[in-house]
Amino acid sequence: MAQVIYGVWDGVVHDYRQGKAVEGATPPDLKDFEVFDDDNPIRAFVADRGFFVFDENVNLIDTFWQYLSKAAEESCGKCTPCRMGTVLVRDALGAMRRGLEADLGLDEIATMAEQMRATSLCGLGQSCGTALGKAIAAFRDEFEAELAKHEPARRQHAMSYMTAPCIEACPSKVNVPRYIDYIRDGKPEHSLGVILQKYPMAATCSRVCVRFCEAACRRKMVDEAVGIKILKRYVAEYQTGPHPLVFSKDMIANILPEDQRVAVVGAGPAGVSCAYHLLMRGYHVDVYEAQGEMGGMAAIGIPSYRLPKDVLLNEMNAITKLGGRFFFNQRLGSDFSVDDLFKRGYKSVFLALGCQEGTKMGCDNEDTSLAGYESGVGFLLKVHDHVAGIKKHEIDGEVVVVGGGNVAMDCVRSAIRMGAKKVHLVYRRTEADMPADREEVVAAHDEGIEFHVLTNPLAIISEDGRVTGVRLTKMEQTEMDAKGRRNVRPIPGSEYVMPCSVVIAAIGQQVDTGSVKPQDGVEMSKWNWVVANKETLATSRPGVFAGGDCYLGPSTLIAAMADGLKAARNIDDYLRRGSTRFFPRSRMRKILENNKLFSNDCIEVPVKNEYRVHHPELSPEVRKTMFGEVEQIISSEDAYKESMRCMRCYRIYSVITEHSIPEGAA
Q1: Are residues 155 and 14 in the same domain?
Q2: pTM of the prediction?
Q3: pLDDT at 554
Q4: Which spans in 98-220 are helix H?
Q5: H or E element, residue 387
Q6: Please, which residues have CB within 8 angstroms of residue 299's CB and are 6 or more apart in sequence?
Q7: Hey, which residues does 490 pair with through a beta bridge?
Q8: Which of 125, 127, 112 is nearest to 76 (CA)?
Q9: Is the domain of 14 the same as that of 153?
Q10: 3-class secondary structure for 497-510?
Q11: Which of 584, 602, 626 corresponds to the end of one domain?
Q12: Which residue range or ranges hold the NADH-ubiquinone oxidoreductase 51kDa subunit iron-sulphur binding domain (predicted)?
């Protein structure tokens, strides 16, 4: 563990130098602070909550000059305290580090840092001077000792990173405050550009994203989280509908030679994202898909009332417009192998197979051949084909769906639209424990779905090869499990039968067991997921990378697209350099995550209460009779109003290191 020598954190002064111990202070438990990259020790760390010094020879003036230089560079300039304060403090520290007379003394710098905190309009200005003010107050002798030398200080090796809680919560690390800023400025097309830097499916994501960013939004400490998702929907469909950007090969700066070819296996969100970023880097990309259409689980697993298929298709078509090719009805493991792809001349392969095979419930008489028994994914595929007019599927009677995730919610809400007399949702834990998006749970309630929580299936009841009911038992909560959730156990004597004609097991999915075979040389886990390096997504076979559901297990669309970007970046390095690069910003994110540096953040500057704008939607009585899209786009006036609620909670983090840090992006 890295040893703190001195510093200030959350207002607590730490000083562990000989004879200077601060009473009541205990060394912080910092994780992953020993080195920043290989054999490159971290000498100091500066953040909004304070700073730590790990090397007594660190020059504090230079350390804070580099930190405030980043703040001045990133200031938006809309308010005087931040626009002028960061520059004045930076320049004063810059003069001091060069051994020159500064326009501001230490007292004036501390006063200006406090004025920035108290009067700036956004999080960047409110936070960037905090650590400096605390440092001057607690360790003024260190600053004065450096000033007394009257000689230039050697510039230290450093790296500074600006982020926000919403950015760090997003798997794709989309710069959320920046795209909201562009909406404020009346430039939604610029806002869309910020999103397209990370993935091509803005309109799709704006409909089905699970909103990790909103869960992290600090505006919740005032009233409600900013409607980040509905703002994304607004910019994705501004003026010209759900496909405002015309993709073409002209967008590619440098198209590589024809032999620089990459195969992507799977046309779902992970595969399409990877193909998009590889194409933009100049590679020639072919996408192999087992189904007869692009989209993967986004196409067959998300009903049209949440994601209209024309929206998805328009965004997926970006791949062909950029020069990529799709090969449909091509299944890995039966129509081709990994070896075949390399023999065809592909330099690298990305596996983005998805999880389209259902998981059994494990109850008695669970016979998948029974008429009326469905897996969650299998049922949604039938719904997709019914709505698309490919194959008619009718439901007669009552339906029981087992599960509590988004797939289960899609199943119950689709079943009611398919004409079910009544739809029941059975879940073994409480409603609060359901992993489904809260909005989906509320929508299911609104549409008349009957919830049976703390209830578990024991057996499927059938007659003449057809489902006639489910034997259930009531559950009760017990002690906490390792994840902090209460365990559950059956209540003796609480068994009962729920009649139904259809039972849908929506408790999980897995990779098709016949896709990746031992001869492919790709290691698989005991859960039948592809084993890949967490940082690079490289598998056990050189040149083969994997991401999305086949690597993560059933996950979210945004996480799959993030894997596509990561894979493309590392495939590019593998093919151009023979190895993957070190990425300083990714390393800084790991430090922030491992130490939960946002967890104690709080609102200090008063903010006026102003509750969020909500998107228009069809009434429950209308929408449950059809598969038309439920949620509608907000107006430009509402988009501006909602964008003004963003507090721009930017924070800057900086490290001082022993040696120079390798160049890198992302």
Answers
A1: yes
A2: 0.88
A3: 80
A4: 106-119, 123-127, 130-138, 140-147, 165-169, 176-184, 188-196, 202-208, 212-216
A5: helix 376-387
A6: 268, 291, 293, 309, 312, 384
A7: 475
A8: 125
A9: yes
A10: EEECCEEEECCCEE
A11: 584
A12: 61-104
Nearest to 130 by CA among 118, 122, 140: 118
Counting the structural domains of the chain, the total is: 3
pLDDT at 526: 85
Phi, psi dihedrals of residue 489, rounded to the nearest 5°: -145, 155
Q: Is the separation of the CB atoms in 403 and 434 below 8 Å?
A: no
Question: Is residue 477 included in any domain, yes or no?
Answer: yes
Angle 537-538-542 from CA coordinates, rounded to 5°: 165
Pair 295, 391 in one domain: no
**Bridge partners for 401 per DSSP:** 425, 504
Q: Show Cβ contacts of residue 317 under 8 Å, excluding neighbours closer than 6 positions.
A: 243, 247
Distance from CA of residue 156 to its chain's centroid?
33
Q: How far is residue 559's CA from residue 355's CA, in Å, rounded to a whole number?
A: 14
Inter-residue contact 97 to 152 (CB < 8 Å) = yes
Residue 40 is part of a domain; what is its CATH number?
A: 1.20.1440.230
Backbone angles phi, psi at 180, to 5 degrees: -75, -35
Contact (CB, 8 A) for 351 and 544: yes
User: By the 8 A CB rule, do 468 and 499 touch?
Assistant: yes
Locate 303 and state its tokens: 């009903």
19 band by pLDDT with thresholds 50, 70 and 90: low
Tally the C-alpha atoms within 13 A of residue 539's C-alpha that lie toward its C-beta: 24
Same domain, 263 and 391: no
Bridge-based pairing of strands 450-453 and 422-427 is: parallel
End-to-end CA gap in the chain: 27
What's the CA gap between 253 and 589, in Å, rounded?
29
What is the span of the domain harbouring residue 160?
A: 6-164+650-657
How far is the C-alpha of 610 from the C-alpha of 222, rounded, in Å? 9
Question: Is the same domain home to 517 and 577?
Answer: yes
Q: Count CB atoms within 10 A of the CB of residue 79.
A: 17
Q: What is the rounded radius of gyration, in angstroms, for the C-alpha atoms of the chain?
A: 28
Residue 628 lies in a domain: no
Rounded to the nearest integer, the mean pLDDT of the chain is 91
**What's the CATH code of the domain at 475?**
3.50.50.60
- The reply to whether 155 and 10 lie within a common domain is yes
- Cβ-Cβ contacts under 8 Å for 346 (sequence gap 6 or more): 261, 262, 263, 286
Fill in the DSSP letter of residue 128.
T
pLDDT per position as a tens digit, 564-617: 999 999 999 999 999 888 899 999 999 999 998 876 555 555 677 788 888 777
Residues 6+ away with beta carbon under 8 Å from 396 = 419, 421, 501
Residue type, 3: Q
**Residue 452, domain member (yes or no):** yes
Distance of CA 314 to the CA centre of its chain: 23
